């Protein structure tokens, strides 16, 4: 009887530990590990109407931006150098094709981010600190 009670108690503790570990999979920046966390789909342009070919930004992060028919459905929540500048870019289909539209702020932000990356070299924290001032 004591053995059976011990086995049930141990099983319950293992189950609780597994459930707890499953909820604790996020990794904080600087920990050396990168676990992507799902987020909402990126805003890539105007809403699509039924029958219309999709058009959106084809990457989730960085300064290399292009528009195309296969925008990602979800992106990770990690931050990469240049992500801040992406708010000044969008895709447009008003001319009948999927085209990238960038604001003047994007060009200035991109140049600043690239300068920060060059100045900081391999020190990504210095680059991110610099980019905050762009």
How would you portray this structure in words?
With about 130 residues, this protein is α+β, with helices and mostly antiparallel strands. Helix content is about 35%, strand content about 10%. Strand 3 (about 90) and strand 4 form a beta hairpin.
What is the element layout, followed by pairings?
Blueprint (H helix, E strand, L loop, with lengths): L1 H22 L32 E2 L9 E2 L20 E4 L6 E4 L1 H17 L3 H8 L3
Antiparallel strand pairs: 1-2, 3-4
Percentage of residues in DSSP E strands? 5-15%
SS field, number of helical segments: 3
N-end to C-end Cα span: 69 Å
The H-and-E topology, N to C, reads as: HEEEEHH
Q: Note poorly predicted spans.
A: 1-48
Query: What is the total tally of β strands?
Result: 4
| Radius of gyration (Å) | 22 Å
Write a concise synopsis of the structure shown.
By secondary structure, the chain is α+β, with helices and mostly antiparallel strands. 35% of the residues lie in helices and 9% in strands. It has helices at 2-23, 104-120, 124-131; strands at residues 56-57, 67-68, 89-92, 99-102.
């Amino acid at each position: 009887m004591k053995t059976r009670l011990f086995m049930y108690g141990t099983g319950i503790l293992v189950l609780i530990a597994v459930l707890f570990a499953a909820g604790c999979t996020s990794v904080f920046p600087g920990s050396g590990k990168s676990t992507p966390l799902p987020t909402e789909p990126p805003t890539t342009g105007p809403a699509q109407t039924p029958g219309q070919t999709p058009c959106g930004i084809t990457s989730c992060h960085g300064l290399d931006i292009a528009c195309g028919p296969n925008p990602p459905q979800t992106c990770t929540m990690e931050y990469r150098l240049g992500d801040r500048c992406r708010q000044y870019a969008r895709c447009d289909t008003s001319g009948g094709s999927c085209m990238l539209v960038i604001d003047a702020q994007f060009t200035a932000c991109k140049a600043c981010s690239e300068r920060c990356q060059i100045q900081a070299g391999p020190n990504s924290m210095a680059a991110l600190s610099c980019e905050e001032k762009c």
